């Protein structure tokens, strides 16, 4: 999708997302993408343009008068296009619904530029709750033992310990600075720039000391010094960390399907829950804004619970 000039109202909305709502720049980019796609589609439909050339449509001319003419039917037509023509999954379409709802709510409630909000009745596609994919203790042990000894192994081991013990997100890990650590406590900046304090257990402390004493590469950038530095002396990216996880997965012989940093987060959360962590504590550790998100981990032991019930002494067939 080519970069085109955005209408002022969309620019204003994107600024509102980050400065007032505290959304991350990644989320802002996703909202910008969704709105650009929607308005290009809308103009294509209005002017009977070919969909193959939709990426060339300039939306900078969109006016508030034109936005006032948008109806609920226009929104559903766009959602149908996303499902049928773009093969968007239910979760991808749900994000686009969230974008449209947020945008129209802003221009009606905050800016009072429209009288009727066409997205009020726009329904979100139902998303089947996925069972979290995770490693068991034996698999996690094999994974960790698969880290090959080299100059980067103390750093990689420390990162994997942070994933598996603290359940942090890959973006949170990449954004950690040396100043994030105060004694045995780690300040993590999560979604929406919300800070949370996480305790560092002995495994994390030991791995951190080994990494600090390993003669790691000096930071060559400006600003706060990252906790984890690449071999080029730069802050690690999400993509680089994902490649490291993929490499360890292969070298360990585990070859776990689709193992990503997010799956390590799931593994950590699962193990903490199985070890007796209550949902509220787990919610804080993981940085979930809603306990409903954390509750997916209450379903992980369905088979184990079934086995317990089967073994109940009162399970007597007469």
* Spatial extent as radius of gyration: 24 Å
Shape label:
globular
CATH class of the largest domain, anyone?
Mainly Alpha
Give a count of the beta strands, DSSP E runs of length 2 or more.
3
What is the structural class?
mainly alpha
- Give the % helix: 40-55%
Which blocks of ≥5 consecutive residues have pLDDT under 50?
Answer: none
Strand content: under 5%
Explain what the structure shows.
The protein has 318 residues and is mainly alpha-helical. It folds into 2 domains: 103 residues, DNA polymerase, domain 1; 165 residues, Intergrase catalytic core (hpI Integrase, Chain A, Orthogonal Bundle). The protein has a 3-stranded antiparallel sheet, with no helix packed on it. Helix 1 runs antiparallel to helix 2 and helix 4 packs antiparallel against helix 5. The chain starts with 7 loop residues before the first helix and ends in an 8-residue tail after the last helix.
Please specify the SSE layout and strand pairing:
Blueprint: H1 8-19, H2 25-46, H3 64-68, H4 72-84, H5 90-110, H6 137-145, H7 153-166, H8 170-174, E1 181-182, E2 185-189, E3 195-199, H9 202-212, H10 238-251, H11 261-274, H12 279-286, H13 291-294, H14 302-310
Keywords for this entry:
single chain; 318 residues; mainly alpha; DNA polymerase, domain 1; hpI Integrase, Chain A; 2 domains; three-stranded antiparallel beta sheet; globular; cytoplasm; Integrase_recombinase_N; DNA recombination
């Amino acid at each position: 999708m080519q970069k085109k000039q955005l209408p002022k109202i969309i620019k204003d909305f994107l600024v509102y997302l980050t400065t007032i709502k505290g959304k991350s720049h990644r989320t802002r980019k996703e909202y910008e993408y969704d709105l650009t796609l929607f308005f290009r589609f809308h103009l294509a439909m209005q002017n009977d343009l070919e969909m193959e050339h939709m990426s060339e449509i300039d939306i900078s001319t969109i006016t508030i008068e034109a936005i006032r003419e948008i109806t609920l039917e226009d929104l559903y037509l766009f959602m149908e296009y996303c499902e049928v023509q773009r093969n968007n999954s239910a979760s991808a379409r749900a994000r686009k619904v969230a974008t449209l709802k947020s945008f129209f709510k802003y221009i009606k409630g905050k800016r009072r530029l429209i009288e009727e909000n066409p997205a009020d009745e726009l329904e979100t596609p139902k998303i089947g709750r996925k069972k979290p994919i995770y490693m068991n203790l034996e698999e996690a042990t094999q994974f960790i033992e698969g880290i090959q000894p080299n100059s980067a192994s103390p750093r990689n081991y420390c990162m994997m310990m942070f994933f598996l013990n603290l359940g942090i997100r890959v973006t949170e890990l990449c954004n950690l600075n040396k100043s994030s650590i105060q004694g045995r406590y780690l300040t993590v900046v999560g979604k929406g720039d919300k800070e949370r304090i996480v305790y560092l257990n002995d495994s994390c402390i030991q791995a951190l000391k080994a990494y600090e004493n390993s003669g790691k590469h000096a930071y060559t950038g400006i600003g706060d010094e990252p906790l984890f530095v690449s071999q080029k002396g730069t802050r690690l990216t999400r993509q680089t960390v994902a490649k490291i996880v993929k490499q360890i997965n292969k070298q360990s012989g585990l070859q776990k399907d689709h193992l990503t940093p997010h799956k390590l987060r799931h593994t950590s959360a699962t193990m903490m829950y199985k070890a007796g962590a209550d949902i509220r504590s787990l919610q804080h550790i993981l940085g979930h804004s809603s306990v409903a998100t954390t509750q997916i981990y209450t379903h992980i032991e369905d088979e184990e619970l079934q086995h317990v019930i089967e073994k109940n002494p009162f399970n007597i067939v007469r």
